[in-house]
Design brief:
single chain, 4-stranded antiparallel sheet, GIY-YIG endonuclease, globular
Length: 175
Amino acid sequence: MKYRAFLHSDPDNFQYELKYYHNPKRWYANELEANNPIRNISNWSDEIKYLNDTNETWSDEIKSLPNDTGGIYVFYLKGINILFIENYILYIGRCQYTTKQNIRKRAMEYLTDDRIMIQEMFSRWKEYLYYRFFPSNNNKETCQDEILLIKAIFPQYNEDIPDRIIKVRKEPAFK
């Protein structure tokens, strides 16, 4: 069967369509520095299924996320056949660590988020929705890294694409 005939043979195929724009020029234009710890998977949380077994509320892992950090987080779709690679980033966000906000609180806010794109993400993918986070209490770097990642990856459910990047000037530790 030809590819397009296969797509049209089941109307559900179009309900689950995702678009990705893999543009190497954009990757390089928004590349994180080589020594940025966000680039190392060992600095990220383990993979967490966002919802519980009934897909009604948060998983126990989401409920027990740390409340003493902010950071970058991603929601991603995880397929069921090639588990180690069949992952698709759907949304990238940041959580600045403050007295009123932390990574656990921010993660739990998504289940009741009223943004149309977030509601769509949950209605289509809730059974296959996973979450990872990179902990950080450096709010300036967290903001900068989120901007670069969104602009480089362009996830489908990020409605706002940052249009400018504020460079954080690095100063030597010793003069």
